[in-house]
Amino acid sequence: MTVKAFLEVDSSWILKFEKVTEVTALKTAKPIMDSDEMVRKEGSTMGFAITDTLGDIVAQLPKAGEVFQNHRIDFCCGGNRALFEAAGEQNVDATQLVQELNALLDAASAADANEVDWTTAPLSQLVDHVLNRHHAYLNTTLPTLGELVTKILRVHGQNHAELAKVHQLFYTLKMEFEQHLIKEETLVFPKIVAFERTGSKDALEQAVAAIDELEKSHDSSGQVLKELRKVTRDYAVPDDGCGTYHYTFQKLEEVESNTFVHIHLENNILFPRLQRTSNAQSA
Q1: Which of 141, 152, 258, 276 is deepest in the core (most CB within 10 A)?
Q2: Range of the domain at 232
């Protein structure tokens, strides 16, 4: 589906990068690898370092997002943090984490050279991908998931008071998502496509002007998702939970995973690319 076609359908997170320097890392963490250790074996490409930001790592290696999620590390809204910093917050050994990521990088490089590099792909192609993979998913999933969250509250709420909080948080998230998607689909993404098609500096500047607000929306949604995970104790279903209970928590966790990738693509790739393009145009 093209951007134009998607936007004609009636469809109801992005921090700016702040590079952590090597000096800062050495002041706040025990050195883990030297320059020789950075090159893992003769002839291999340069691997990741503990001072690399999460956003940069996932931009280069999308599968790293799954590794971070497994360790409960926020790589989307917290994408500007250095690896050693984020790992420390979750009591994860940064050395082992770097080794795991570099092994994954080697495997990915050898396995699939045809995967799209969103750091260099046309902006309109990235927009299409976000629309088709993430916006479409939310537009389809949120209404049904809302019914499920309400159902388990009605059936199990008397014995599990936390479900009232889950209900409240979900509908807050749903409202934020719907407003965010509409803004991107009707105002921001068309400007990006128009800029790429016509070279309109005005269209580019209008898209860039919306970044700050979109980033704040991402941060807000990210906080709600973190609260949902906390309230549900990592989506643990109680012993008396029925099949619907299990399915609802499974879908909530699925929304979290989809959203982390969604926000990463915008916060750590799309928005910085737009900003760099705008800066280059103004130079």
Answers
A1: 152
A2: 123-282
